[in-house]
Design goal:
alpha+beta; two-stranded antiparallel ribbon; 83 residues
């Protein structure tokens, strides 16, 4: 089966001088991988399930890296847009 993992992060920027929320932003990222294995019957001892679990862990790690990078870029844009 193919795999798709989606992550969404919402963050808010608070201005301490004005004592109010200045901006709310949302970043969204996803990772997809086309499936090359067909799971017909669930067998816990099947080694291909371990491979698929490892792939999901790798995809999650890459997904969080992308999400964090987008978060940093978005915060930098907000900060430098005011200058």
């Amino acid at each position: 089966p193919s795999l798709k993992i989606v992550a969404e992060l919402e963050f808010r920027l608070y201005d301490t001088q004005e004592k109010r929320w200045v901006d709310i932003r949302r970043v969204l990222t996803q990772k997809k991988r086309r499936g090359n294995l067909q799971v017909i019957d669930y067998d816990p001892s099947d080694p291909s399930l371990a491979v698929m679990a490892t792939e999901r862990q790798e995809m999650r790690s890459a997904l969080y890296d992308d999400l964090f990078t987008q978060l940093i870029n978005s915060v930098e844009k907000m900060i430098y847009a005011d200058k």
